[in-house]
């Protein structure tokens, strides 16, 4: 009995927190398109969670509640897709594809509610509509994940990146919980609550850190002259302070040291330098190991890798061979034999 009360409390609390968070994200100051897409997504998950709580614990759940929850289930996958699309774009308005896509989904959802109200067609809702909703959710999850993988170089940095990946992972877990509800029905509400609670925590943390909870990728190209100046400043900083030798160096720390926003530095490296942050740092560390291999022929490879900022010998070997086409030992042997 106590476990059921706790499950009801946490599941209902998750749904309520989600509704509150969705309203906050929608009406907050300086709201971006991606942030409103996230608000819609959280709203759909919260309504779906609320329906599950009511259906499980209340014998006579109103038909309107059931209908709203099952309709929300149809829109969770598309909401995730729109959130990811808008997060990877700096557009302040929906494009033609998104407008047609969203309009078609809205028409389908409204038509289902008007033509087959739950009160008179409960069997249809719990049959083909639920099956279609779960399948649609899965299809959009797969497509959204593929978009993230394909455009991983455009992912925002910092809190926004963590939020984007966590939302996608959380929805995968919730879908799996619903899909296997015959075996895991007790954890569905808890998973939904954990998902919403994480979002609450992430948004609160971002707010305390002075960051936007959703930071869309800055797709505007940096002018060539500005990019050249900033890349030269980055190169001068690295030459002067050799920050890449620190194994714990992060994009956030480097951006602060350079005096650029983290998203701007990420874009500068990806778009104008053709490398990710990790690739850029790895190149500098490889250059350092090449110098040490020749200047310190008696030094061990482990010591050289550590001195150059590599955290492990295996990472050093893989990066070095990829850059030079040979192992560090062979590189040293070839160059020293010429001398």
Q: What's the total helix number?
A: 14
Query: What is the element string, with H for helices and E for strands?
Result: HHHHHHHHHHHHHH
| Total domain count | 2
Task: Tell me which CATH architecture of the largest domain applies here.
Answer: Up-down Bundle
- In CATH terms, what is the fold-level topology of the largest domain? Rhopdopsin 7-helix transmembrane proteins
Please tell me what the overall shape is: elongated
Mean pLDDT across the residues is: 82
Bin the strand percentage. Answer: under 5%
The chain-level structural class is mainly alpha
CATH class descriptor name of the largest domain? Mainly Alpha
Give me the Rg, rounded: 26 Å
Low-confidence stretches: none
User: What composes the largest sheet?
Assistant: none
Kindly state the percentage of residues in helix.
Answer: over 70%
- How many angstroms does the end-to-end distance come to? 81 Å
Number of strands: 0
Tell me about this structure:
With 339 residues, the protein is mainly α. The protein folds into 2 domains: 2-208, Rhopdopsin 7-helix transmembrane proteins; 224-338, Arc Repressor Mutant, subunit A (Orthogonal Bundle). Helix content is 77%, strand content 0%. The protein is built from 14 helices and no strands. The chain is elongated.
């Amino acid at each position: 009995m106590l476990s059921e009360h706790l499950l009801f409390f946490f599941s209902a609390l998750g749904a309520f927190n989600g509704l509150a968070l969705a309203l906050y994200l929608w009406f907050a100051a300086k709201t971006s398109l991606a942030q409103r897409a996230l608000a819609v997504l959280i709203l759909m998950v919260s309504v779906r969670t609320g329906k599950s709580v009511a259906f499980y614990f209340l014998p006579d759940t109103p038909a309107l509640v059931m209908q709203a929850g099952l309709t929300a289930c149809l829109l969770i996958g598309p909401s995730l897709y729109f959130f990811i699309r808008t997060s990877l774009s700096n557009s302040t308005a929906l494009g033609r594809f998104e407008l047609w896509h969203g309009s078609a989904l809205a028409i389908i959802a409204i038509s289902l509610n008007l033509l087959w109200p739950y009160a008179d067609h409960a069997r249809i809702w719990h049959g083909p509509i639920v099956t279609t909703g779960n399948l649609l959710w899965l299809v959009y999850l797969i497509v959204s994940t593929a978009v993230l993988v394909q455009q991983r170089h455009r992912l925002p940095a910092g809190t926004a990146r963590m939020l984007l990946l966590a939302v996608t992972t959380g929805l995968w877990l919730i879908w799996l919980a619903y899909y296997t509800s015959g075996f895991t029905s007790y954890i569905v509400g808890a998973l939904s609550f954990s998902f919403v609670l994480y979002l609450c925590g992430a948004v609160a943390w971002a707010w305390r850190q002075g960051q936007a909870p959703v930071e869309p990728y800055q797709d505007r190209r940096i002018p060539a002259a500005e990019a050249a100046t900033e890349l030269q400043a980055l190169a001068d900083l690295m030459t002067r302070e050799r920050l890449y030798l620190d194994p714990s160096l992060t994009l956030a720390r480097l951006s602060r040291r350079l005096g650029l926003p983290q998203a701007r530095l990420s874009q500068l490296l990806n778009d104008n330098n053709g490398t990710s942050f990790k690739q850029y740092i790895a190149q500098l560390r490889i250059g350092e190991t090449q110098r040490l291999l020749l200047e310190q022929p008696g030094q061990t490879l482990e010591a050289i890798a550590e001195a150059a900022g590599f955290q492990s010998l295996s990472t050093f070997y893989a990066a070095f061979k990829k850059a030079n086409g040979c192992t560090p030992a062979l590189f040293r042997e070839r160059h020293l034999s010429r001398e």
